[in-house]
Amino acid sequence: MDLLEFLEEFIFYYPLTMSIAWTVGAIFFFLRREARHTQQPPVLAEYPFVSVLIPAHNEQGAIRNTVLSVLASDYPNFEVIVVDDGSKDETPHILRQLATEHPRLRTIVMETNVGKPSALRCGAMACNGEIIVSIDADAYLDEHAIRWMVSHFVTGPRVGAVTGNPRVRNRTSLLAKIQVGEYSSVIGMIKRTQRILGKVLTVSGVVVAFRRRALFEIGLWDFDMITDDINITWKLEKKFWDIRYEPNALCWILVPETLGGLWKQRVRWAQGGIEVIRRHTDIWFDWRQRRLWPIYIEYVVSVLWSFTYVVFGMLWLISLVIPHPFPVVKIFPEWKGTILVALCLIQSGVAMFIDRRYEKTILWYHFWVIWYPFIYWIIAALAVVKATPRGLFRRMGQRAVWKSPDRGLSPKL
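and the corresponding structure tokens:
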């Protein structure tokens, strides 16, 4: 088998293998840690003080409801800190008004946009809690979420972070409906499987809790990383802090409903992953970090798959105009593609069956997952190809500032 034939088979067998692995791992996690346990929020022997940290930038349309959702939590011992990162809209005014009405709320206003990682660093310095829960400024936190996440810290002294379960709340467009399936069948399944294996690639930055001591031990967030969640995960795991996944810690989020917004999000995610892989190459020189090696390798292989998929897809497009002898990958599936689509449907079906514990109507969205391989594989692969040079060659040391992302047009449950 020559190189081109090997790469052609690689395009098929890599997603096939990983889909089976994620499905089996998620089922094992479910049977071991979800199916036999009650969904009633835990009653804790102690309730350590919690600081809920919300970085915000130009969030006038969302910040009020986000803060109110946190204040409605059933956790008895917490504060809320919002860091306004140089907003140019009415966000600071809304926060000042809320602070006068709710004594648990404190606000920090930055005069200029210093970036989400820097805003998180500033907010962490002001937090009084033993545990810091970070959520995005457009997310609605479930009333029991803090209690579920804190339960891991109370029972596990080496727990450094607990990542929650983000759920899509805007579902009026095709793109949003597909992402309902993606968050369940891809993101949720991967976290379950990686948790079984002992190391996770990344916490969900939209909803995650940290042990304060662990955060300060690793030096908080790096201000120059384009994605804060992946890098903070690796910093914690390199210091041997345990990271857990709590599916009961629900957080309702907005996802992009335009192709432009989705594209920008996926390019940023891909660039963040590449930057983390670039920064943490030192794990290969430390035998104690060997449990991170499989996660590192799998991510690199996924990048190679994206490049291979895009190149062979381009060869197919060229062959429509100019015949050539090179292997191609057709965008429209033949027998191999049909197998992958069928496996994708099985994977999403299993995932949604598991997640119906948390969202009763989610099985209705299984129909829309059929579009996932056609739309998201192509977008994700192209995003990796575009983002890789940025991630590899961007000059580090500069602040990673942010802009408000694409919001869903019709957010509702």
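(Above: one complete record from the training split.) The chain has two domains: 3-27+286-392, 39-257.
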